[in-house]
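Predict structure. Input: Superfamily II DNA or RNA helicase, 973 residues.
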Amino acid sequence: MNKTKNVIDPEMYFAERYNNINYPKESKNKRGLRNAQIGAIHSISSYFTVQSSNAAIIVMPTGSGKTSVLMMAPYVLEAKKVLVVTPSKMVRGQITEDYSQLRTLIKANVFNKEILKPNVFELEHLFSENDIDEIKAAQVIIATPACALSLTKDDDLNILIDLVLIDEAHHVPAKTWQKILINMKHAKQILFTATPFRLDNKEIKGDLIYNYPLSLAYKDGIFGEIQYIPIEEFFEKDKLIAKKAEEVFFLDREKGLDHYLMIRTDTKKHAKELEKLYSEITTLKLKRIDSSMSNLTVKKCIEDLRERSLDGIICVDMLGEGFDFPNLKIAAIHAPHKSLASTLQFIGRFARTNAENIGVAKFIAMNDRELLIENQALYTSDSIWQDMIIDMSESKINEEESIKEYIGDYQNYAGNSVEIINDLSLHGIRLNCHAKIYKVVGFNKTSEFPDACNIEFGPYINEKDNTVVAIGKNNTSPKWFIGESVKDVENQLFIVHYQKETNLLFIYSQIKSEILYEGIASAFCTFYEKIPKHEMNRVLGNLREFEIFNSGMQNRFNDSGESYRISAGIDVSQSIDPSTGKLYSAGHVFCKALTEESAITIGYSSGSKMWSSTYSTIRDYIKWCDYNGLKISNSKITVKTNTNYDYLPIPSRLESFPSNIFMCDFSWKTYVNPPAIYLSETEGIQGIMMDISIKIMKINKDNIKLILSLDGKEEEIICDVNSKYSSVESKILVSEGRRQIGLSEYLNNNPLVFRTTDDVMIQGIEFSKGDPEAIVFSKDNIVPIEWIEKYNTDITVEVNDSKYHPHEKSIQSSLQEILEDNRAYKYIIYDHSRGEMADYITVLENNTSYEITFFHVKKMSAANYNSDVNDIYEVAGQSIKSIIWLKTKSILLKKVEERRRSNHCIFLRGEYEDFRKEIRSKDKQITGKIVIVQPSISRDTYMPDKIQEVLAATRYYISNSGKVKSLEIWGSK
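Output follows.
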């Protein structure tokens, strides 16, 4: 608080200083105002010359100088008395100190040093009569929301205030903030924020008069370079982040960068745990602070940082707004923010550039695909923060006035009457651009949404552009409660838009369920079908200067080890060459490109989906759908990116199922995040999706009949050429969030992958051709074993069973004998049961690597050698699927550990702990080898073409996987 009173009329202070204002522009040799500050203050002057009934919104990124504009505003508006509302005590104290001395404005040469300073009163508590004299004498009152509200309730005092400045408006509690502005409706109001979207998703009412975008801040050097450093492992999360933070910190210091570190978490308890952890495993000098500490304590901490007596600080959910220490450039994020606004504020503090000897801001956090911020998976290994943060910020800042007329065209249909919307503002809706698209017939905009949508608000219909908007309420029991009496309520946005020129239907749904998408399409149309990928690819048409920074490639050879490769970077197309196109076909793609007017981001995937990183108003979302719909329907468009991405072939539409399909498997999405499975008649989790076995029963041109089984429970599934899965009876259930869904519904969202013996891959409605000429059969990889003659094996018995086969010697027993006779194997592991990696696993160590061999065993069912292809199908499929466990060391070890927890992976030679430590610690790669053990395959007996095709295709897929160096078949003579 400034105790020295000016001997002037308090109401004339700002007016009498108006002519003292300077507007110097900052340059390399002279301090002054930045472009953002000059633009903002002139926008304020201009706006209030014509009206003052609406609040003015100023949008400036963190670090661009909002506080200086806030302090200048009373001078340019010649205010009498100003109320400044700040989000926290710390910010209140900092602004009070700065305003009392005009330190920042004098430093920027807006005022000279001799200017008379304002009387500033810091309201540190709820208003009382003891404050009246101080408030009347002050030109500036600074308070947090609760204290400010208590002051504005006094009618005699609030009438004296003619200007209200809200600092960081998005963080102020909604009700308190609204009440302050209502109480002060007679005063001019200016709202300052870097993120003009609220944490509670409510509309910030007012006119956005100035918006300085983050991309321009980056271009002007205000917002610096940022880099995300992901931690891939999930074990010992805090320890791994701490060690990486120490490594990055000292590496930056070695480079001569004057960087400091912040360790961020969200609870005081966790902060204390981190303080202990860092002291034990690092040499970093740190101090823990939290929001309960005073501004003086924070200032002392900053002094210690500047004097290098500290390397960094451990913070509890604080130091966002108002914290200015540009040398803070490394963030160890142990608990990420959950909202975009908080995330941007946090990142902005590290992206400041107004200091010497600083470089790229670095953010260290655990790879977490489940954490979605504004539907963006920011914390993933393939995230490009520099682009994503800028895109996510700017896509939220939309033109407010331009959408009001459009929103006015929506009407609420209730029975036969039409009511203009008055209880819900569609103006406040900002949605991420994504759409499920169908080719349809018979669109009816007055149809009702399916019951599953649980529509609560709407539908709101726009007659002009055939758009329907509705909001549903999803009531589900919380995870911690079993029963129906306690419910969580979640609002879900639905948009249905019909493009008449193309007969395309665009569906926006926050519930991304294939069943729900089809239910909506069926409700509004008499016929619908998906759009094949080669038509979806046209969304890339009529664009130029592509920068592909995220793409997927479907591997035609490796179902699970790397069935789907995701590449991310500045231009991932550079990693693609002609040979890549022989191994992969195009999956999804997400890129930047230029239209005739502007730069855009656009992506598409199989399943008739397209998306952009843009967050739009409803109006702009519909424009986006229409723009891309015209391209999808234009058969004359030829897509050429003029990048190496063009080497990837685009799958065609599946017209009918080929008869030579020999295996199928779950999609790569299932392997990445396998859900739990249940049996309808049994309580409790029965396993995960990969524990289910799949058998192809019959292949027709228009459908495939499958049997999926678990522990003797079989469910018949039919898949048609439109990738529609159906089941007569749901016996196997799949977890989806808090509910259980049928197996067919899960497969509609995650379609199976089918493979043929002539190198065709089918997933969903996509038909991807390979190189059938490369598939050649050879008997050279068949190793003859004397199963009967030497080992006395009953080759019709796969595994010893004391009940059904008390005396016979099984194939597994003989194989185990063969493996144990080989002393070169360092480890021998037995893993036979559902969910197995293989029946037997051996580990052979050499100078540079570990050779891991998977042995897959199947009994002979046929009467004669090489007489029944069914003896080959299942074991061939298992062999291809098992490649996933050889992808990396960590995946192999994790799978072994999981199997050990369920009493599998029995070590017949060697000890598990030795195996785990050795594989993890030694600097040796793993190489894979697959062995099919099937005595019905004979090297010296005539082999029908059908069996040759299956064996050749199996060898071809495995040998091209990149992780397995060979396939052998241990058969008979």
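Confidence is low (pLDDT under 50) at residues 1-7, 415-423.
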